[in-house]
Amino acid sequence: MSATSPQDRRRLIISVCLLLSVLALSLFNQKTSSAKAPDGWQWITCDVGQGDAHLVRTVEDQVSLIDTGDSYSDLEACLEWAQVERLDAVFITHQHRDHYGALSELAESYPIARLFTSAHFDPAQVPQGIELTQLASSDEYIPELSLGTDAEVRVLWPPDSLDRVPGEKGSSALVNNSSLVLHFRVGGEQPLTVLTTGDLEEAAAGRLLPKPENLEASILKVAHHGSRGSGTQLIGATNPALALISAGRGNDYGHPHQVITDYLKQHGVSVVRTDQSGSIALEQRDHEIVVTLEGQ
Ligand SMILES: [Zn+2]
Hints:
Blueprint: H1 6-27, E1 43-45, E2 54-57, E3 63-66, H2 72-82, E4 89-92, H3 97-100, H4 103-109, E5 115-118, E6 132-135, E7 144-148, E8 151-157, H5 172-177, E9 181-186, E10 192-196, H6 202-208, E11 219-221, H7 233-238, E12 242-245, H8 258-266, E13 270-273, H9 274-277, E14 280-285, E15 288-293
Parallel strand pairs: 3-4, 4-5, 5-6, 10-11, 11-12, 12-13
Antiparallel strand pairs: 1-2, 1-14, 2-3, 7-8, 8-9, 9-10, 14-15
The structure holds zinc ion.
Zinc ion is lined by residues 52, 96, 98-99, 199, 224-225.
């Protein structure tokens, strides 16, 4: 008697794909220890331990990186898995080392064409010789950047003035809440839509809720490694089919928090985690999001 909505079917397909990926992994585990990401990958969430690093690729092979993590060796392993040789753009969401710590080493080894940071990132932390653009958003103006013919990103947060970012002056919460929130649309007729949220905490997330139409995405990079302090409202507003969580194996912070993972489970959102699966590659194929796991 139960009707199946398109959304439910989409979730089911993703779940099936996830299951197949895991099965493939278990079947070919020995052979895939040196495997590369699938040729058609459009999005990769890198396993950089406790931190964030994500890759997005256009149809003409333009590659952008969102955050670097703090471990260059982990990031480098992911770039090699993805077979990336240069970066057309790098975005840094906020000034915590688990998001930008590997930037200087990265710049020594990989050409970086453009660098974008939160408006509240200290430019002195940027390696010399890279063109820097600082990004902010407002109620009246949401910047939109083209990353190539089939990829666009809209900058939803932070506001230009630090006074409008929730958090005590000098606090870690203020830095988290100054994170870039980016909405990606990647691909042609059936694009992947991905919302990335840095380490945004609940107070800042609340500022985005009045315009849920800006937030909707099929894929959500869960804020702050699944920390409880980011709350669940942003997840509800995004209404994703698939949630990506980047967290270190056995990390000291208890990330992701069970409140977050329970919420995702209760709302039928498929979850993939770097602490369980290593790096994660996504590709939109027909009406399916194909998920390929690197494994550990
Ligand atoms: Zn973080």
